[in-house]
Design goal:
Number of strands: 14
Helix content: 40-55%
CATH architecture of the largest domain: 3-Layer(aba) Sandwich
Structural class: alpha/beta
Number of domains: 3
Shape: elongated
Largest sheet: 6 strands, mixed
Length: 412
């Protein structure tokens, strides 16, 4: 499947991407490329969004998986393919493999959430659970590859997969040819390798900026040589890669201008903004480009920027948590911790202050035992809803003026 060439740059050219687009075009969604008026105003730049979360499996990964499948000879297709993935690659490969009559085996760690297993099986993949980590699942997939004579389809470190991913940029620049910059998430590097190849071939002056989660700066580390540990529980699990591709890092070294790191609050805020403003569901990795632009406004000020929303597969409960945490950061949700006397009417007096400031009470929690107060005291925590942070600040000031010991419970 992989093209033979001594120079990695010769293995991935715009001609390879154009050929991939002609090959896969009838079987993938030509997703819209739209300007966001509101996000442009917030960012101080011209923001164009490529809605790859509208693919059938809700991610761009279909493009590379399908290109790799179509380049295989009939014998390898009949034997079947295998991959190690607990994410979007598994669904894209399973969906198109099943559609083409190719048996697909996906090895996932035993710790993979049941919903991801079910999603992959629902589009035709045969899921094998092995190991506690991705590395253990990957090793087992390579073992099965040899034992069963299957063809391994790498999620990113393969020129055919990267060429399929690069078709995202081909469409973006056909729809909006005068982009100054594209900002692309980096996990293993397949997407940005393909997109940078297209962008630099069409316009050598375009800026190509990669984005990694600050908890997983693996490509940044690999190219800069700076020791940066990778690990942690990031919202952007789709780009949480400890060991980036060897092929892709050579492409990125030559064709990507900068790599930025974004923190978890920025990722959460970007996911929430895309839902609130664009009414579109995007996973943490898919929102990384917007997060980087908003966290580095001076760098991107005034530029016309293309952002691929590369995936929309996020757990609904996690999405709800992200939205509520974002409301808390904006001051529209708050929790106040108040010391009270444990006597009749104490809570009523506090509640009357909330009413005075027109702030809605959502939940009330009492704690009498685990406090440092005297036995006749208690801690009350009141979760409330306000128009903005200023309204909550005015309430706190009023409460303190009435002699209450009150503190705002901050997010971690």
């Amino acid at each position: 499947m992989t093209r033979q060439a001594h120079n990695p740059l010769d293995q991935l050219t715009i001609d390879h991407v154009r050929a991939a687009h002609a090959r896969i075009g009838d079987a993938i969604v030509r997703t819209p490329m739209l300007r966001s008026k509101t996000l442009s105003e917030i960012a101080g730049a011209d923001i164009w969004l490529k809605f790859e979360n509208l693919q059938f499996t809700a991610a761009y990964k279909e493009r590379g998986a399908l290109n790799a499948l179509l380049l295989m000879d009939e014998e390898r297709r009949q034997r079947g393919v295998i991959a190690a993935s607990a994410g979007n690659h598994s669904q894209g490969l399973s969906y198109h493999g099943t559609r083409l009559g190719v048996p697909v085996t996906i090895v996932m760690p035993k710790t993979t959430p049941a919903v991801k297993v079910m999603q992959t099986e629902s589009v035709g993949g045969n899921v094998v659970l092995e190991g506690q980590t991705f590395d253990e699942a990957y090793a087992y997939a390579r073992q099965l590859e040899q034992e069963r004579g299957l063809t391994f389809v790498h999620p990113f470190d393969d020129p055919d997969v990267a060429a399929g991913a690069g078709t995202v940029a081909l469409e973006m620049l056909e729809d909006q040819p005068d982009l100054d910059c594209i900002v692309v998430p980096i996990g293993g590097g397949g997407l940005i390798s393909g997109m940078a190849t297209v962008a630099k071939a069409i316009n050598p002056d375009i800026d190509v900026v990669g984005v990694e989660a600050a908890l997983f700066p693996s490509m940044h580390h690999a190219l800069s040589g700076q020791p940066m540990p990778a690990g942690g529980d990031t919202l952007a699990e789709g780009i949480a890669v400890k060991e980036p591709g060897t092929f892709t890092r050579e492409i990125i070294r030559e064709r990507v201008d900068d790599i930025l790191l974004v923190g978890e609050p920025d990722l959460e805020g970007a996911v929430a903004l895309l839902l609130q403003i664009e009414k579109t569901v995007v996973e943490g990795a898919g929102a990384a480009g917007l997060a980087a632009v908003l966290a580095n406004k001076e760098q991107f000020a005034g530029k016309r920027i293309g952002l691929p929303l590369c995936g929309g597969n996020i757990d609904s409960r996690l999405l709800a948590t992200v939205l509520l945490r974002n409301l808390a950061r904006e001051g529209r949700l708050a929790r106040l911790r108040i010391a009270l006397k444990d006597q009749p009417g104490a809570l009523h007096k506090v509640v009357s202050l909330f009413e005075r400031h027109n702030i809605n009470i959502i939940e009330v929690y009492h704690q009498r035992v685990f406090t440092k107060l005297p036995a006749k005291g208690l801690i009350t925590e009141i979760e409330c809803e306000a128009r903005n942070k200023s309204q909550v600040d005015a309430l706190i000031e009023d409460m303190r003026g009435n002699g209450y010991d009150v503190h705002l419970v901050e997010l971690a």
